[in-house]
Structure formats: structure tokens, C-alpha cells
Amino acid sequence: MSNIKRSFWQKIHIDPLFCLFITLLLGYSLYILWSASGQSIDMMQKRVIQIVLGFFAMIVFAQFSPRTYEKWAPYLYVVCIIILLLVDIFGYTSKGAQRWLDLGVIRFQPSEIAKIAVPLMVAKFIHRDGCPPPLKTTVQTLAIIGVPSLLVAMQPDLGTAILIIMSGIFIIFLAGINWRFILFALILIAIFLPIMWFYLMHDYQRERVLTLFNPERDPNGTGYHILQSKTAIGSGGIWGKGWLQGTQSQLEFLPERHTDFIFSVIAEEFGFIGSIILLVLFLCLIIRGLIIASQAQTTFGRILSGGLILVFFVYVFINIGMVSGILPVVGVPLPLISYGGSSLVVLMASFGIMMSIHTHRYMLSKNI
Amino acid sequence: MVIILLVFVLLANLADLQILNFSYYSTKSNNNRIEIIPIPPSRGMIYDRNGTPLAINNITYQLNIVPDKTKNLNEQFEQLKKIVDLTDEDIENFQKERRNYRAHRPVPLKENLTDKQIARFIVDQHRFPFVSIVKIQHRYYPYGSSLTHILGYISKINSQDKQRLEEQNKASNYVATFNIGKMGIERYYEDVLHGTAGNEKVEVNSRGRIVRLLEQHPPQAGEDIYLSINLKLQLYIESLLAGRKASVVAIDPNNGEVLAMVSTPSYDSNDFVGGISSKKYKELLNDPSKPLFNRALLGAYPPASTVKPFISIAALSEGVVSPKSVINDPGWWQLPGTERRYRDWLKWGHGRVDVLRAIEESVDTYFYQVAYDMGIDRLNLWMKKFGYGERTGIDISPNEESRAVMPSREWKMKRHKKSWLQGDTIPVGIGQGYWTATPMQMVKALSIMINNGKTFTPHFLLYKKSDIINTNQNQPKIEPSKYVENNSLININPAYWALAKEGMHRVMFGSHGTARKVYADAKYQAAGKSGTAQVYGLKENETYNANHIPEHLRDHALFIAYAPYDKPKIALAIVLENGGGGSSNGGAVARKILDYYLEGDNSAELKDDSPNIGHED
Description:
Chain A: GO terms for molecular function: lipid-linked peptidoglycan transporter activity; peptidoglycan glycosyltransferase activity. The structure holds two protein chains of two kinds. Chain A is built from 15 helices and three strands. Chain A is mainly α. The radius of gyration of chain A is 21 Å and the shape is globular. Chain B folds into two domains: about 35-225, Penicillin-binding protein 2a (Domain 2) (Alpha-Beta Complex); about 250-265 and about 295-615, DD-peptidase/beta-lactamase superfamily (Beta-lactamase). Chain B contains 22 helices and 24 strands. In chain B, the strands form eight sheets. In chain B, strands 2, 3, 4, 5, 12 and 20 form a six-stranded mixed beta sheet that branches. Chain B has a five-stranded antiparallel beta sheet with strand order 14-13-24-23-22, with helices on both faces. In chain B, strands 1-9-10 form a three-stranded antiparallel beta sheet. In chain B, strand 16 and strand 17 form a beta hairpin. Chains A and B meet through helix 10, helix 12 and helix 13 of A and helix 1 and helix 2 of B.
């Protein structure tokens, strides 16, 4: 790896390989969206705008140095908490959940901001006290993670809440933690689960979990989504039914085909082969992300980029797992592929932060 | 490491779904999108012998709903109440009907929509995604009650029909059909009239809307059929019987074609199409004149003196009497060895009587003696050859035709748990006692006599549409031979037939003929026999149950007749319940019918028609 010459890519603080995989996945997303949207030109235009905004966010976030992020993390975190509180009070309700904040021009999901703010804050907090963090710091960190997660869960958006928790936990995990604590955490979760089941979860969420174990329980009701999605995937076979030829998606048997269930459209129309291609692209992106993390020179950079890329993987795993019926339907979109502006922009921003960590290595070392 | 492991979990699951269980999910996906919509065939029409339509298909509009796809069913009903005047009764019927339909199938909600209702619904259609208007063919009988007892009617397929169709492996042909023939011709020729259902294979989206047509198998319409009924004659006879409880059957003796079959009073079969209201049905059921009862096929009346020519044939053939043998009639006949006397209808007797005179003057004592000499066993055997006590085999379901009773020792033992007495035999000689017969049986027996023993099964079907198409000259292929029955009567000495017929001729034209007054000025020669049945009321048969006997005690008037005498074109049986004397009242009706048929404006049409149907003898 030659770092002597400062190439064009280095000047704009972008990792070309990482960016290539992102571009390929976004291309795939546009291709399948034409089919999944039912050939809607309007949605295609919006998607292109989302992608442009996403790239813009990535490039902008790549320009700040990691130190800036470390410095500003607490402010971002506080702003995030305030917005989440606002959403819980004034939010716009959609599908039984208060997730949106209407800003007049655009509506966006503030919970998405927490996906960046929380890992940043956690990384900064742990980094301050050195690694591995002492028990006291760990408990404080859990509180840092817990507050926004709870606010998001109250919206209620369990999927995002879980992802926010994950993003924080991964960072603690990457910072190094002793096994006794993990064991303790597991016991805590075991106690917390029934509490969550009975007091925190909404009826529709409980239904989702129940139908996961037996989708045939109510084929026209709650199990419908899972059954139709499994049918779409299964009927795709090895080679798929062909682009725009998926009967499950084109005839709208598949629910939310352009957002959460877009993977089912890919699996139906492009078959097992198309699914493998998608997974390989994701895997390449994740491996590149892990390499970036391993090359980071500060602990803050390492745990932050490692955490971000691991959360990205969790996204992918939960989404594909839920549409293919091995995880409950929790409403997690497939990153980079699903239609949706907020999550894409935030995701691209987090990629921007990773690139910033990667491309500012030498400047950082100069400063230290 | 963990990441790669988890990716493999995903891949393994995908492989399981997409490769191992591909065919399962593929079928499931096809079941989702492909729907097969059965299309009912249009029912064959029914025409009379001159091509006048008797049963046709009108188009009506029906509102259907897919209940299991509709949320808030009751809410939708409330809204529909305003738009299409949906009534609570409609909803009630719908709830009953609903069970008979498969899942995701439209269930009829309201029939016979008016143009206004349709217009209002179409404006608001978007509010009812699973409600649709379909065009259905509605059976209509233009002549209403005039032909009910012949045509019967079609009505909603009920669970019994369903079971029967299931057993006969016809259920799949009826998935889109609402109505099935329940009575009469509609029932008997159901298989001919119904046709073959077609279907459309369509692709539907998740909301059940049809996206495109994949395959189409058009239905094959049911066949049109032409009946031997002469509508004008039918309507004329009906007008003669207006207000009476009566029945007339007219057939062409040359081939057994039924020209008219009237049973009055009648009811409008149109009321039964698509289901009759229970109130209306109760009214019909409780009407003392029994309009639902088809007297021509189910009415079992004592045939009375109309049987005398047939008994004469039997007695002559058995050698019980000879053409020359004579008895003395003092006005009564005494059962040998007893004090019991049987009266003649003429108090002072007919004097010396031979067989010819016995028929002409309807001498009871002659036939008491004959019955006594023949014995019930021989009488039963012979009269069964003339079709008494047996179904005529007409093309109407056997459930709708009575055997009536030709009594025998076994019959009495079985029915009354008593052994046959000699005294029971005597009234059989004059067509009374335990003996009953339907008008159709009487006219069949008469036609056997006309044809010297050659027996045609009476029938309504003249030809089917395919019979025209399958022949070259655009003319239907009619095979009267199809309706010829084997009958040993054909071997009887022709002189006996001639004698019996001469007797019947004299009934109308002889110097002492019982009906001579009615036929005094007739322009054609005819033959006939009257009968006056003492009232037992309406002898009920097993299938139709009305428990009470009419209160009137007047006699039933009976008459059988045919004309022209030398070359018969029409044979009749007439029963006028409580109609009084057979020779005067029955004979008068017979005269009018024969006049109308042979001389009326109807005859011109008949001439045009005859080559077309080809019943030359």
C-alpha cells in the first residue's frame, strides 16, 4: 500500500475501493427499484435524488477530521436526544408508529441520526477512559446507549432501537471487554426480555414475533407478509423469474415491496444467483470496511469504524433474515438497496466518517 | 469469522427456499396469481312444434360480493342499502347462500337489479372493491302458467341437487350454474339443455382484480329442443277448462307425440325461477284446487266406463265372449251364489245386448258378467298390456308420474292387508272399484287401440337442434321407432280391434250412442267413450300428498276420443273433476277440441307443418 503520493482520491478523502462497492450496490438498487416500484418514474427520480444526497453526505462527512468528530460527538448526541423527544411529542404518525418529523420541505426520521450520534458518543466516551474500559465506564456507556434507544423504542420503532443498541454494544465490544461482563449482560437481557414483551412492546410487534414462529397461524392476517415473502423468494428458484417478471411483486402480493421487502423482489426475479451476487457485494463492502477499521491508527477510529461496519452487517443480516423467515419482521430496511431517503443519507454519512478515519491517518499521526 | 458464518446461515436458508423447496413455493405463487373463473353455458331454449319459444333466457343483472375478502361486511351492506335498495331479506338469503360457496368466490347478494340501481352502483363502484355486477341469464316462460305442468321450471341448485351432481360426476360442470331443472321437461332434459361450462384462466393481483387473460375455454351452450306440443291447441284447451279442476291430454296416435297436456288450475312457473317466496308457495300449497298438482300425470281417477272397449278386447281374445254372444240386461246383475246385485246405470235395463251395443250404450251389466267370467288375474294381466297400472314412460321424471292402480290380489294384500274378494272383481269390469288411472294412461291405452296393439310411448320431445344440424336437408331426423314398445297385443285378431272401434264410433254416431247428441252435426267421423266416475275424490298417489278429499260429491266426467275415425290424427283423454256426466259434459269438451284441431284455423298451419315433422303413417 503506497501512501507516498497523495492521489485525487486522497485529496477528497474518499477510499476508491469502498466507494466502488457502494456504487455497485446503489446501481443494483436502482435496477431493482424500477421493478419493485411497479415502474414508477416518480419513485425513480426520487431515488436518484436520494442517492445524490447520499453521496453528497458521504463526501462532506469525509472532509472532517476524526478529531472533529471526537470533539463534536457530545453536542450531536444532545441534539439527537432533543429531536427524539420532539418526535415523541409532535411526530407524524405513519402505520401506527410515530417516526417522522415533518419539516415542511422534507419529512425525515430522527431516529436515523441516533444511529450515528450514539456510536460516536460511545466511541468518544470509551476512548477518553482508555481501553479496555473499566466497569464503571461500561455502565455509564450503557446509559448513553439506553436513553436514545428507549426514546426510539417508544415511537415505537423496535427495529431501529435494536440497531441503535447494537451500534453502541459493538463499540464496547470492540473496545475490549471481559467475559464476565458479557455473561452479566446476557443475564440482564434474559430478565429484560419478558419485561419488554409485556410492557414495552405494542400488540403489532408481539404479533410479528408470534407469527415468526408459525407464519401459517393466520395466513391472511399477520403471517401474510412472511408467507408472501417466502413464497416470492422460494418461487424465484435458481435463476429467477426475470426482471419485471416476478408475479408476487408485480401483482402486489408482496407487501412493502420497494422498502423492507425489496430483497424478496430481487430473490424472486433474479433467483438464487441474484441473491448471491447481492450478498457477495455486501460482503466485499464489509470486508473493505473491516480492513479500514483495522488500519485505523487511533483507538477512537478503530472502534468507531469497526462498530459502524458491524452495524451495517447487522442491518443486512436482520433484513434478509426477516424477509426469508428466520427472524421476526421488525421493519429494518435493506441498507443501500431499500427505497428511503433518511436511512440512505445517514448510512452514507457514516461511510463518510469511516473514510475520514481512513484518509486522515497521516494527518492524525502528524498531530499526535 | 462470525460475519462469514452468519452470511452462510443466510445463504443456507435461501438455498433451502429457492432450490430445495422451489416447486412448493412456485405452486404457491401460481395459486396466488392464477384464478380459474368458470363461465356458465347458456341454457338451451325450448320451442313448440311450430318453433314458438316456450322457454327463453332473458338477461338480468345480479350483484355479487366476495365476502371473505371484504372487510366490514356489515358496513358495506349499510352503504349498499342506499344504493341498490338492499333489503334485510336479501342479506338473510345471502348469509344462507354463503355456505354453499368456496372461499374467495363471489356470492350473489341481490338479483334482478334495475337500470337505476345499476347506474347508482357504477357511480360508487370504487367504494366496493369486492362487489361486482354480473350479467346472468334468467329463464323466462312467456306463456307462464299455461305450460307449467309440461315445462316445469328451473330453480336454485340446492344441497340435494348438489349431492346428486356430485354422485353423477357432473358437479364440475355446474360450478358457475345457479339454476337446475326441477320439474317437467326442464328436469328431464337437464343434461341436453344445460350445456358444458367453460372457464377463463386469469392472472389476478393481490386485490383480486383481473390483470390479464391467460387462457380461455368458452362454454358450450345447451341444446335447443323442440317439443311436440302444439301451442295453439294447448292454449285453446286451457281456455275450455278455465275455472275447472280438469285435465286433458291430446296425443298424435300415429307416433305418440303429445300435442297438448293441460292440467287446471295451474301456476306461473316464472315464480319459481330463482326461488319462490315462502308466502307465495304456501298459498299455492294450501289452495284447495291444488294448482301445484299435475292432474295429467299424477291424478289417479277411476277410469270408469272408458275402459269398456279395452275390456271387450280382452274378453274377446280370451274367448269369454264372442262377437255374437248376447246377454239379457234387466237393469241389474247378480253375483252368482249371493244376494248381491249390481245396478246398471239405466234402471230399466238395455234388454238383449251384444258387445257392440255394450260399448255403444255403455252397458254395465254386460261388463259385470265379463269381469266375473274373466276374474281379476286375467283382467289385471290384460289391462297392464294397455298400460294401466304402469307408468307411461313419458319423458318426464318418473317421480312426477303416477302408476295409479291396476288392482290385483297381491296389490290388495300388500296395500290393504286383506285378500281379494270376488265382489272386488265386479266393479273392475266398469273401471271402478280399486282401479285408478291417469289421463296420460287413458290416452296411451286409447292410442294402443287405435294402432291395433302397436304401442308408442307418449313423448314431448320432437327433436333436438343437433338433429337438424346432423341431417342434410335442414330437416330434423325424427325416429318414431324409438318410441315403439314391444307389446303382445299386436298379435290380437284385427277383427276384435275393428269391433271395439266400431263400438266407440257408435258411441258418437250410433242411434243409441251415449254421446250422439253432442256429435250430431260433426263434419268428420270420430270415435270415443265416455265415463262417469263416482267420486272418491282425488285418489292420491304416493308422491304428492294432500290429505283431504274434495268435499263435492259430484261425479267426475271422463271422455276418451279420437278423430278422424278412419285415419286418426288426434287422440284425447279428458277428466273433468266433479264434472257430472261424462257423455254430455266430457263429450262436449272433446267435440270442441276435435273441431278446433281438425277444422279450426289451426288446421291450415298443421298442413304446412306436417311435411316438416314427417309423421305420415
